[in-house]
Amino acid sequence: MKHMRIIVATALALLAVSFASNNPVFRETLRYTLQNIGIALILFAVLYSPGFALARQVLSRGPLHAIGIISYSLYLWHVFILYLTRRAIAGEVESALVAAAISFAVAYLSWRYLEKGTEHLRARFSASKHETSQRSGRPAFSGAVALRREAAK
User: What is the reported pTM?
Assistant: First the structure.
């Protein structure tokens, strides 16, 4: 528990430092790195600390869980949709609200029909790769691990 307090304090300090500086070079470079490290540390604490059990329960239920499921599709589509709605709708607030509604709808459809709709392909190709590796007698490694092991032979 003491380690988690240190992690959270470090995360909050990194976030505070990232927002405190007005230096334009810092704000466009190191600032984002500090923010990402700080947020990653907070997520680590939420996921692995017993003190954040309530936060885990809140994040794993209802609308937040649904947003988590479509979050990658939402990330991919929202900028394009925001660009289009800003060109089509004059008001800043109005275009943002319309963009949010359309982004969530498109993200859900993208998740439902592209991501979830192609899961059977992942299972099919993963199984065939596993079978091939079993027949050859080699373990199924990927990326740098496989290259490193091949180079060591």
Answer: 0.59
Secondary structure class of 60 (helix, strand, coil):
coil
Angle at CA of residue 127, ends 119 and 137, nearest 5°: 155
pLDDT tens sequence across 33-45? 999 999 999 989 8
Exposure string of 81-93, with b = 16+ CB inside 10 Å and e = fewer, is bbeebeeeeeeee
Sequence spans of domains, the chain: 1-60, 63-153
d(CA 144, CA 150): 10
Cα-flanking dihedrals φ and ψ of residue 141, to 5°? -105, 160
Phi, psi at 46, each rounded to 5°:
-65, -40
| Burial grade of 139 (CB within 10 A; 0-12, 13-18, 19 or more) | exposed
CA dist 41 and 8 (Å) reads 7
